[in-house]
Write a structure and sequence with these properties.
The complex is a heterodimer of chains A (203) and B (646).
Chain A (H helix, E strand, L loop, with lengths): L9 E8 L4 H14 L3 E6 L9 E9 L15 E4 L2 H11 L5 E5 L6 H4 L8 H11 L2 E5 L1 H7 L6 H12 L6 H9 L4 H16 L2
Parallel strand pairs in A: 1-4, 4-5, 5-6
Antiparallel strand pairs in A: 1-3, 2-3
Chain B lengths: L10 E5 H11 L4 E4 L7 H8 L1 H4 L2 E4 L3 H13 L4 E6 H17 L5 E7 L13 H7 L3 E2 L4 H18 L3 E6 H4 L2 E5 L31 H20 L5 E3 L6 E5 L2 H12 L6 E5 L2 E3 L3 H10 L2 E5 L5 H11 L9 E3 L14 H12 L8 H11 L14 H16 L4 E3 L27 H10 L10 E6 H17 L4 E7 L28 H7 L3 E5 L4 H13 L5 E6 L14 E5 L14 H6 L4 E4 L4 E4 L9 H5 L5 E5 L3
Helix pairs in contact in B: 1-2, 1-7, 4-5, 10-13, 15-19, 16-17
Classes of the chains: A alpha/beta (203), B alpha/beta (646).
Bound molecules: iron/sulfur cluster (2 copies).
């Protein structure tokens, strides 16, 4: 699909649970967009916030200026979530009627759910909420694809492949290939490209 | 080639901390030292990656004070040096810094303090900007990534101009945010070190580097600050954007500048509000600030965390009462902005709404209702020890030993991932009622142990991590041993500074340069001061439990238990599973088991979950790290471990 080129700032939030490869995904995305000529600002926190907690990267993709590393409430154009509960958490703060969502389907249970003190929302409740809070959403099982490819953490690349296919952001497979050439060895690149393609096929 | 060494003019996506490191390289830094601490660690980390190529000396020092001393020695010898730390590191370094600003420096010396408004990864939201004022050193605050690089580079030149240390202050949302940076040239100098000290005492280039004669040297610092003021008046890093006579002047610095700009845009107030962004925040350039103050009758200070700019601008204004008549100041003092926590565009927009009596465009009512409805469905996601974390096993052992002992013993906490043991309810076993600064657990434990004469009767334990041990625990431990403190001191040795990304420390045989260095053994230090020392693997619940129980019973001075097991995220463990673990559904009694779900309700490994349909425990193989500890806690032996991939 041909990606649209933003004339105004596009706000993307990448979310998930510590350890899911959120930071790597946001860097890869941002790297591609910087090469494409955009001014990209990523807001992120790591450190203690990674230990099993919710993590978020705010990406501001601007034609011309550095932006606040925190997106204002209700300001997300696109949400990409590696975990569905985190998708919902982000939508309730940063969503608006025009927000698009791409989310992984596989839950990671918070401790309160494991201990039985709290409930994890049902699939139906999640879908209903996504319906109400987005213009459009895609729910894909990226973790299973990652597991098939030998490592569940590849789900982040599966999501990037899927995101490329949605056309919500101006990047494609060629740019992804160029980006990972900067950091990954040849065999890892091949695996990442397979994950990317598998993601694209899910859209 | 790493992007840190990208050629001049290339456009690179840098983390704020990488931009600072690049700025130091462009300035020709020769020596860099730091103690790891979020959000500062990536500065030294990235420099250590290219130290060989650029012929730098890079060191993870034992603590922040020593780090500044190492950098200062380089400066005294004419080299450019950088030292980095998190906000409370400046407290640790401050004693040396007080004397350093008096002795002065030679080669450019830049102190980078990365602060954590909102305490996203800290147990305090301390402000080190006040140290700049108190210790009388110039202060710079970058407000974007390009500036982080350029200001750092300039800071070295400034330091050499005035012969004193310069402080550069960043915040989490700068240090850990990323953005475009256009690189400058990397110099090709081969600096030589030489320390002159035979000249007259007041000669800054050839005399001794000492803080005496105190009053004369102090007057010299004041003169240096006057020079700085004059340079700051002309600094291109201070910028104003907005109308010539704004209805409101915002004075701001650092990431808050980006929040303020965004907030003004959200409310469409660009034609009514002006923003004075200051990069040189101590000492303030008086003429520049006064000029802008005169252009508006209302002034709002947007800053984190304390009201540093607000106070200093008000002091300037108080000196010019006739020019300042009729001004209204908004900020933290009058409650327009919150007195604590980090800011963001929404909070600043809220302040502007109040001042201008306008309202930002709201979401449609139906959407807001859907948000409310969805919000009720969302359980919180508490921080907790990682799956396979050695600390979970350690605290399980500690909690059990305390329970068995029966005298309501408790643990004095310390700083590291293990601080999470103080969180509720992320852990089913709360044993850590005190938590302060690095090393304080041991100092407090020693103090509690002296209270027996006043009727205090609980056994006292304390913990610290391996890195913390070297940083600040040793004096407290010697104090405890010397004063016969009856404490059980537990070192949670996970082979690195896990919380900040596995920087080496003196207990390891590797340095920041990647060289092999002698390890300084914790056990040997503890034995040398006469403490009783035992070593165990926290994953071996039986043995660890036995030792702890015996230690709690035993009267006498310091008993040390070193619990050794690498962090679950450590490079040697990541991606490998020692054990493949699963729950045998036939053996798991589920809700019917007398354990009352010890495994999932109390032990709380995020990978050991509960299947609500089958009403049995189940291991999530995506999250499980394969430590095998849960197999030992199930009384039914329903959790089965098999040899895994590592
Ligand atoms: S990073 Fe390491 S030490 Fe910290 S919680 Fe995770 S496993 Fe434990
Ligand atoms: S083996 Fe058990 S305790 Fe260890 S990570 Fe896996 S589920 Fe958690």
């Amino acid at each position: 699909m041909k990606a649209k080129t933003p004339k105004v700032t596009q706000n993307l939030i990448l979310t998930g649970v510590g350890g899911q490869g959120n930071v790597m995904a946001s860097r890869t995305l941002a790297g591609m967009l910087v090469d494409a000529g955009y001014v990209v600002t990523i807001g992120e926190t790591f450190g203690m916030s990674q230990r099993g907690g919710s993590v978020m990267s705010h990406l501001r993709i601007s034609p011309d200026a550095v932006k606040s590393p925190q997106i204002p409430q209700g300001g997300a154009d696109v949400v990409v979530a590696l975990e569905p509960l985190e998708a919902l958490r982000v939508l309730t703060v940063y969503g608006n009627p025009g927000t698009s969502l791409l989310t992984n389907a596989r839950p990671v249970y918070p401790i309160g759910v494991i201990t039985g003190e709290r409930d994890y929302p049902s699939d139906e409740a999640l879908r209903e909420a996504f319906d109400a809070l987005t213009q459009h959403y895609w729910l894909i099982d990226a973790t299973s694809v990652g597991l098939e490819l030998g490592n569940p953490v590849l789900s982040n690349i599966v999501m990037i492949g899927a995101l490329a296919k949605t056309g919500l952001l101006p990047f494609d497979r060629k740019m992804f290939e160029k980006e990972i050439r900067k950091t990954l060895s040849a065999d890892k690149r091949a695996l990442n490209l397979r994950a990317f393609d598998a993601g694209a096929e899910m859209i | 080639m790493t992007k840190l060494l990208a050629p001049a003019k290339s456009k690179v996506l840098f983390l704020g901390n990488e931009a600072i490191a690049r700025g130091a390289l462009e300035a020709g830094v020769a020596v860099a030292s730091a103690y790891p601490g979020t959000p500062s660690s990536e500065i030294l980390e990235s420099l250590s990656g290219i130290a060989g190529e650029r012929n730098l000396y890079v060191e993870w020092s034992v603590n922040e004070k020593v780090a500044v001393e190492v950098a200062a020695a380089a400066s005294f010898s004419g080299l450019r040096a950088l030292v980095a730390m998190k906000q409370n590191g400046v407290n640790v370094a401050s004693d040396f810094l007080l004397h350093l600003t008096a002795s002065g420096t030679r080669g450019g010396l830049v102190l980078v303090s990365c602060e954590d408004p909102g305490a996203l990864s800290s147990v305090n939201e301390g402000e080190s900007r006040y140290f700049a004022r108190m210790l009388e050193m110039p202060l710079l605050e970058p407000a974007d990534f390009q500036e982080a690089k350029d200001l750092t580079k300039w800071a070295f030149a400034l330091s050499e101009t005035i012969g004193n240390v310069v402080m550069l202050r960043s915040v989490t949302r700068m240090s850990h945010a990323s953005g475009n940076v256009i690189c400058g040239k990397l110099p090709n100098r081969k600096p030589r070190a030489n320390f002159e000290y035979g000249g007259p005492v007041m000669d800054s280039q050839t005399g001794p580097m000492i803080s005496t004669p105190v009053v004369a040297k102090h007057l010299l610092i004041r003169q240096k600050l006057k020079t700085v003021e004059a340079l700051f008046e002309k600094s291109p890093f201070n910028r104003y954007a907005g109308p010539a006579r704004p209805e409101l002047l915002i004075i701001t610095s650092s990431a808050c500048f980006l929040y303020a700009t965004e907030a003004v845009g959200l409310l469409g107030l660009q034609d009514r509000v002006g923003i004075l962004k200051l990069a040189t925040t101590w000492p303030l350039p008086p003429r520049l600030v006064t000029k802008h103050l005169q252009s508006a009758n209302r002034v709002l200070f947007v800053e984190e965390v304390m009201s540093f700019l607000e106070e200093n601008v008000k002091v300037l204004a108080a000196g010019r009462p006739e020019q300042m008549r009729g001004k209204t100041f908004f900020g933290k003092y009058d409650g327009t902005l919150p007195a604590a926590g980090e800011l963001n565009p929404d909070i600043v927009a809220g302040a502007l709404e109040k001042i201008f009596k306008v309202r930002r465009k709201r979401l449609p009512a139906a959407y807001a209702a859907a948000v409310q409805k969805a919000g009720a469905l969302i359980p919180p996601r508490e921080q907790t020890f990682c799956a396979g974390c050695p600390h979970r096993a350690s605290f399980w052992n500690i909690a059990n030993a305390i329970a068995l002992d029966g005298r309501r013993g408790f643990v004095c906490g310390d700083i590291g991932c293990y601080s999470m043991a103080a969180l509720t309810p992320a852990n089913g076993y709360h044993t850590m009622p005190t938590l302060h600064s690095m090393g304080s657990g041991t100092g407090l434990a020693g103090g509690f142990s002296q209270l027996g004469r006043f009727g205090f009767d609980k056994p006292i334990l304390t913990v610290c991590g391996d890195s913390t041990f070297y940083h600040a625990v040793i004096p407290a431990l010697i104090n405890a041993q010397h004063h016969r403190a009856d404490i059980t001191f537990i070192v949670l040795d996970n082979a690195g500074t896990a919380m900040t990304g596995f920087q080496p420390h003196p207990g390891l045989e590797v340095s920041a340069l990647g060289e092999t260095v002698p390890a300084v053994e914790i056990a040997a230090i503890c034995s040398a001061i006469g403490a009783k020392v035992a070593i165990a693997d926290p994953f071996d619940l039986e043995n660890t439990g036995k030792i702890l129980t015996a230690f709690l019973r035993e009267k006498g001075p310091v008993k040390v238990l070193i619990l050794r097991q690498a962090c679950a995220l450590s490079p040697q463990k990541k991606g490998k599973k020692t054990f493949e673990v699963e729950v045998n559904e036939d053996l798991c009694l589920g809700d019917a088991c007398g354990c009352n779900r010890l495994c999932t309700r109390i032990f709380r490994c995020p990978a050991l979950t509960w299947d609500r349909k089958k009403k049995k425990a189940v291991v999530d193989r995506v999250v499980c790290a394969g430590c095998g500890v849960c197999a030992a806690i199930c009384p039914q032996k329903a959790i089965i471990k098999k040899q895994g991939t590592a």
